[in-house]
Amino acid sequence: MIVDRLRVVGSPLTNKVMAGELSRLAVRALGRRPPEPRKAGTGTLVYPFDPGLAMVACSYLRTATRAVWDLYASSATRLEPLYDDLVADVAADARCWLRDGDAISVATGNVAEFAAGERQVVGTVKNAILDGAARRGLRVTVDPDRPDVHVVARLDDDGSMVVGADLGGGSLSQRGWRRAAGAAPLREHVAAVLVMLGRFDPRRDVLLDPMCGSGTIAIEAALMARGAPRLPHGLPPGLDLEPLADTRRDDYLFGDADPLIIGADRDLDALIAAKDNAARAAMTGHVVWQRGDVTQLDPDDIAALAADRGKTADHGLILSNPPYGERLDDADLRLFYGALGDVCHGFRGWRGGFLVVNEEFERAFGGRPTIKKPLSNGNLRGYFFGYEF
Asked: Could you tell me the domains of the chain?
């Protein structure tokens, strides 16, 4: 069956965050809100396909990992009927997402429940697209390394096999600015999720990451505040760019934003890496880097720093990914979390947001969180804790 949908994929339990960010971006870029999406699981949104919204998703959306143009869906449960369905659909498809001479690659996601192995699914989808295109008179080849179109096949939540074009050409989490990641890197899209969960408002908030490491949270917050483009590797040729004729993909959607973001760490090497990453992200002028121990943070020092930038620190957000305990025993970790809580509760009128894997955090930090949301960083399962101080 030929379908026409935009699929936005992210980490589990981030549907609401992704929908909120995409709506904000679409209003700015397109002057309209997207329709209410269908939620396919806890980490996938499905919209009616719209070229403008697709461009916004793959160029500006930072909380997602993939943006896919769903092209075909099959209820087949075996390889042979899957092949037959796809060949017929590709042959009958009048859309020009493939051109004569294009090369494709095929990947899968979430196909473990299908009655065939991943490599068999890849081979079947690949052959079906080549043969279906040939019936239309198109010569299409396979090039896993440098394809013109990245094809992805995955099982939908209703059990159907959905085949589409990956609009970002791969993971949207790979921004290209992070050269040094540190010992325990936070994935870029997860950092963006934290910024959304923390409700960072660059018009009134100072954002402080007191354990910034290589700067992922601070830099992503600056990029989001400015609406910085995350350029895709290459869009399928059939994607109509006309809806964004007045918004070039190298534009900042919120170019007038002037956020104050502070990244602090006691590790000098980490700060050097963070500064280098910020330069690669073209965010040098929007993030201030400070060397210091988180347990020695002083609200007055932060207020003075803000005053030097012509801003006040009456409102702010402390947002961080604290240590999980790899280099501390349990007793030292509890003491550290307690000291962190003492410092943060001294920032009156501020909010706090922390992604933590270690279960000792909540009790040791003190106070009652306003938000406790399951959230993972890769294979590490944890929670996002939100506080008001």
From this structure: 2-166 (3.30.2130.30), 188-388 (3.40.50.150)
